[in-house]
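<backbone_tokenisation>
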Amino acid sequence: MFVPTIPYKALLAVYGSVMSLRFICRQRLRSVRPNHSLHAWSPRPHKLPAAQLRGLATQTNAPKIPPHALRYQQEYQARNRALLYYTTAVILFVGGASYAAVPMYRAFCSATGYNGTPMTSGRFDSDRMIPMTEAKSIKVHFNADRSSSLPWTFTPQQKYVVVKPGESSLAFYKAKNNSKEDIIGIATYNVTPAKVAPYFSKIECFCFEEQKLIAGEEVDMPLLFFIDKDCLEDEGMKDIDDVVLSYTFFRARRNARGHLEPDASHDEVQASQGFQDFPSIDPNSSKSS
């Protein structure tokens, strides 16, 4: 009886094909039921509603984040939020400081008399406004200027007044609108020499206030001031006999914040207040650029 012989290589090929097919089937089954083993898989599962099946599929396929990774992610998000808050606060502070730098500097000069700015507040007690009759007199000269773009006539009513330290004095300026339209003006001021400024106090003044003149109108603008008697204790004031008070009128305009300001270049306004030798920041430079 003839018994056919199967080559050894053919047996190996058949065995390899069977094992490959078995491996492929197991992988397919695992992809269908990833949470169960091949032996625990039932060919006839219970039928579930479609909505529940979709929920199970979503829960099964969604990646699960380990607790420590989730905690690190939350801390990272909290640090990013804190950094955003700090950065925003710094930007707002720097922006606010840049806008407020010039008004704050002017307020400081007005309160302390720094750089020839007359003092406009404080030290108005009655005992301070007592004329020192035995002290030498000081002659206060008045000067008036205006911007070339302002069609006004602006002059002092008196060339000078002679006062004693502690003595209050009243002076007048005259302004006239020579144009055929209503114009709002605004004035700046300065006093020289600069070392007199801490003692030069103004009780009533028209500077940095809206001055509206209709076409052809002429008005008198009062100025009430006194030189503080503390100047007698300052050795630097011993040689002061003359003081010059200067006013400069500009056409007024409203800035982005709605405040009135001189309608002139930053350098021109600074020079009218005696700040031409001091570096300063133009608050409108960032807008124009």
User: Anything to note?
Assistant: The two ends are 109 Å apart (CA to CA).
